[in-house]
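ASSEMBLY PREDICTION REQUEST
Request ID: AP-0331
Submitted by: J.K., bench scientist
Number of chains: two
Total residues: 225
Priority: normal
Notes: Please return the full assembly, not individual chains.
Input sequences:
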Amino acid sequence: NAGVTQTPKFRVLKTGQSMTLLCAQDMNHEYMYWYRQDPGMGLRLIHYSVGEGTTAKGEVPDGYNVSRLKKQNFLLGLESAAPSQTSVYFCASSRFEEQYFGPGTRLTVT
Amino acid sequence: AQSVTQLGSHVSVSEGALVLLRCNYSSSVPPYLFWYVQYPNQGLQLLLKYTTGATLVKGINGFEAEFKKSETSFHLTKPSAHMSDAAEYFCAVSYPQAAGNKLTFGGGTRVLVKP
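STATUS: Completed
Returned structure:
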């Protein structure tokens, strides 16, 4: 039981490049989330999904898109990366109130 | 909009001393309350949570927290700090009435344990 996994672990992008972060969970959870973590700001919700085929905006959605084509996967896309998107990205999943977190992806945009 | 405030971004304690991390939330509706811990270069792990019932909640690694509705607080304590408690701690809230079980986090408190 791997829990929540994230791919890749590290990535460096140049401004304007695009990329997709992959989150996978094997707990059959309905809900999935993408957060970004920045120093002193805790974690902030980017987008979330309450089920396969559904997505919704969180607190800081601008510059990101998501898709949930399969229940176990939640993809986060950056179409045109900006230095302000340098951060650590965490995926999480839940069935009830407790969220389970992945190990994170450290993204640097130069 | 709801918010979560953690007093003190850094806390230094001696090994064996009391650990006290403060968390206050702003909401007229009682939320679900959580403390998560993050060890260096890792994801977040749930320490404990309050949903309903007993207001004193015990978690893993000897931590406990008390929900005080009148003070809108959920402070985290551990009687005796251990070197392994050095980590960053996050308080978070969610609202069962809201769609998606979304969490709102405080800014985090980094704990340093001195030998």
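REVIEWER COMMENTS: The CA atoms of residues 31 and 95 of chain B lie 5 Å apart.
SIGN-OFF: pending second reviewer
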